Amino acid sequence: MTTRPALTRSEVRALLWHYRIAGEGQPIAEEVVTAWWRELRAHTAAQCHAALASINPQRVRHTTPAEVATLAASAPVDGAPSTARPPLPRTPSDVARERARFAKAGQRGIRAVYAAMGWQRHPDTDLAGTVVCPFCRAQTGQVCRPLVRTRDGKREQRDPITRMHPSRLAKARADKAAGTTTRGGANPPASQGVSA
């Protein structure tokens, strides 16, 4: 045992979360934290980090507290916990969830800027954002891609005010007249400048 303070329960929880040993995106159970803490309480956080970092990344999620305690006792460290090895990569569902959260925050942010500045959004932008673009295939709620020509040679410039292709706006107007928009709950795209 070293003169450094022993491992605390919150440090054990942080280790388990950092190396994704327990939890799987859910809160870590107290029984798991207690079991790991009982086994590792004689070691410091730096020793436990070093022990976990020395284990193969594919195997670290299946390690036991006894293995970590043995590794920590056999190779003590004097320095601070190393940041040499990053945590395991995030799952695709985590990335998708985070991107969706950021997109919603961006929409709230641009709308707040417009409200604070007293700017008015162009109504055609919101209308065109309710349908899929027939030219560039931009989804509902997204601004049209800056495509000018398709592979079959069709040309179409985006409108500088709405940043949408004219065929998309025409399709949205036709769908609105027919009463069949495909909005599906998507946010309309945020325009990037002042429009008259």
From TrEMBL:
Signal peptide: none annotated. Residues 150-162 have a biased composition (Basic and acidic residues). InterPro entries: Phage_Znf_bind_put. Residues 179-196 have a biased composition (Polar residues). It holds the Pfam family Phage_zn_bind_8. Residues 119-179 form the DNA-binding phage zinc finger domain. Residues 150-196 are annotated as: Disordered. This is DNA-binding phage zinc finger domain-containing protein. It comes from Saccharothrix saharensis.
